[in-house]
Write a structure and sequence with these properties.
single chain, seven-stranded mixed sheet, 2,3-Bisphosphoglycerate-independent phosphoglycerate mutase, substrate-binding domain, alpha/beta, 18 helices, Alkaline Phosphatase, subunit A, 36% helix
Amino acid sequence: MRKVLLIILDGWGEGRNDYSNPIYLAKEKDFFEFIKDHFPFYLLQASGIAVGLPWKEEGNSEVGHLCMGIGKVYYQNYPRITLAIRDGSFFKNEVLIACLDHARKYNSRVHLVGLLTEGIIHSAYEHLIALLDFFKKNNFYRVYLHLFLDGKDSPPQSGLSLLEKLEKEITRSGVGKIATLCGRTYGMDRNEYWKIKTQVAFYLITEGVGREVEDYKSYIKNIYENNPNFIDENLEPLLIEKDGIVKDNDAIFFFNFRPDGMLQLARAFLEIEFPYFKRTSKNNLFIASMTRYLENIDYPVAFPPIKIYTSISKIISENNLLQLKIAERYKAYHLTYFFNGFVNEPHPGEYWKILPPSEKGFKENPLLQSKLITELIINGIKENIYAFIAANYSAPDIIGHTGDINLAIKVVEGLNYEMKRIYNEIINKEDWVMILTSDHGNIESMINLKTGEPQTTHDVNPVPCYIINKNFYIEKKSNERRIEEKKIKGSLINIAPTILKLLNLEIPHDWEGEPLI
């Protein structure tokens, strides 16, 4: 029976052959050149929509390990909702329909509550427009908007231009009236300033407690002109439509998709026992949200969390095979909780070896615990009891974030040596297959080529994937390697089915990834 060793060089992407790339600059990289010349090599997408992130967004360790472990794309909230809008399923959403049905049944109104922003961190402008379109398609026009201006994920004084843009959409659709406005510091407080923040937003929306203004555009424009340092998030509560506050029998829909900013306000509306401030009772409200904000209260959610039913680790365990996970504490949660599909305990037959951080500083020891990880891998192979070993080397990502390219070169050269040690251990063992890959890019792009400044963030580069076994050895022609270095063959979701195929285990029918070999 074959056994599989999965090595994740965290933050090791496929970069350009220039001075921004420590992998290119390193002198001792013969192992990486050798395996690229002699073993199956694939470029895999590790960023953006291919791994469930927003389009063109850099990959990260959480999503990378999740995709590798569950064999399918787990769409994050923003792209998940956006894709639903594009394919039309958004407009058939059962919770939105229930919201509409409630307002029709009681001849009441719908209130849309959330952040008006240029960003896609907490909410998205396009999602708000889609909500207006939903009610337009259903010929329902009694819709009031309660909006929080941004100034954090958007330019400091972008609120007015966004409101003007929104007014054009309202005119186009004939749906919606802006009822109240305030800064996100009130509506989206996360610091438990219940009385001076959350209560202010709650009373504005439910009681109309705020400055009454008829021409909010002129009012905000005047603020901008008289206070160049003003930030939208601090806009005082403004009441624009007196009839637009929440009344008995109304429906409320919170449209932020990120939960943390809406948690306190949602609690004020949903919790029966609420100790933080007094609330006037509103009868028979229908309250729903775009995503789940509160775990301990049962209420309608348009896009509830996606359930993950299985993972590589679970399948291996169910087949009574032993497995070993090795990581430094920096990346332990990624190789366990995320790789296992949000499961925080080891499966039967699954063993975790979590290493403490190195006592030495990064400059003195840029490889961190890489040497010890290698020794544990080799010991695990020699024990001859594990069908699957997975290990994460955190040094490329950790040092990539420092922006120190000289340290990064040392990491590349050090890992070149460590990978040789592992290769020499498994290459004559026909039953062991080594998969060498990464979760996202970072270390391979450490200088911004436009500015010349150090680059310390993740990037959108694809990651390499090598499949190494004595029987897979080949002699590649130079043009074959050039083609492989340019052509993307899949994404991180291909890792899981590849491992199961090598282990001769059944691949779940609902997995989206295909085996690479």
